[in-house]
Amino acid sequence: MNKRKNLLNQQLSLLQSSSILKFDAEVSLIPGMTKLTLGEPDFNTPEHIKLAGMNAIEENHTHYAPTAGELPLRQAAAIFLKEKYDLDYKPDSEILVTAGATEAIYVALFGLLNPGEKVLIPTPIYPGYIPVTILSRCTPIFIDTSSNHFVLSPEMIQEAILEHGESIKAIVLNYPNNPTGVTYTRDEVVNLANELKKHDLFVLSDEIYSELTYSGSHVSIAKYLPEQTLLINGVSKSHAMTGWRIGLLCGPAEIIQEINKVHQFLITSTATMSQKAALAAFTDGINDAQLMKNEYLKRRDYVYERIQKIGFTCPKPNGAFYLFAKIPEGYIQDSMSFCVDLAQKNKVALIPGDSFGPGGEGYVRISYAASMKTLITAMEKLTNYIENNKKTDIV
Ligand SMILES: Cc1ncc(COP(=O)(O)O)c(C=O)c1O
User: What is the dihedral of CA 343, 344, 345, 347, to 10 degrees?
Assistant: First the structure.
């Protein structure tokens, strides 16, 4: 058996299965667990979108769709991106409809990378960019932003480029950020764009949480750096549509047309009925995120206040639905051991910060995409743990 395993793509041995999903699966086995682990809206898909999906099946939209996506959907996505973020993408040549943001990440990086190249990845960050980088025989170069309140600065980019030089092919941005909830103001985006403009590299900007920006408006780096940017967005988080698997990859036509080959040979096209549902999301549902956002905001404020009271410190998130909180001194500092101990003793599950790369150790990610009732229970359990497990109490 081992001999056969050795015949596989060797890069596979360098990949680790998602530690977030693994941790979630393990804690889910413990009865009575209150979970603030997963990164998906607890809301259901809005009714009018579900209806569009059901009608699509009724009307037999059950055949292959065009590889790049149904044109009306791409047109609606272009209008959405224009109205919301003042972006100009041509529906027929500059937008691909992908199977969630996940496939957009995969096809973009696979399409860009040649063996031996490097990808700059500011951390802590959603780990989904790493496997395709490794499978492409490339190296992720992490930029730890924890010393700067998890904000990537132009200086950090300069430093990384100085150190790694021309082998850098791309930089990944993700804002609003999973796991920190940090996002960027217009000035910060412009400063990053001005720095990135000086370098011959692509920017893969994952803005899947753009509609969940709390104060101020989301500013896309694609506005200031259209030639270099591959923009990722979609309906998973904005419209509570994680299961429908619809994302967007947008960029200059000549790049998107080439990347479309990867997408075509990988999945042919995304599910036709999901595309009809996404069309409803980008047209009649263009502002659907607002109601959910109002709820998330209340929850953010509640959890932020509660965790501060018991000694966690954390940047106040301005987007997405996560808090990234530093474990108070006097408690287990290793984030995995802390989360395991907390789950076993008080039955509340948080994600260990080290799942999100350098800078994440010593932190926990708290997802507030959960009902207020669940959040109240979780905060009571967490408070109880903190009251009873100071290190001096541990024998
Ligand atoms: C930053 C980020 N990008 C991409 C994804 C994946 O999104 P999708 O479900 O649309 O594939 C997630 C999911 O949690 C995410 O947090």
Answer: 40
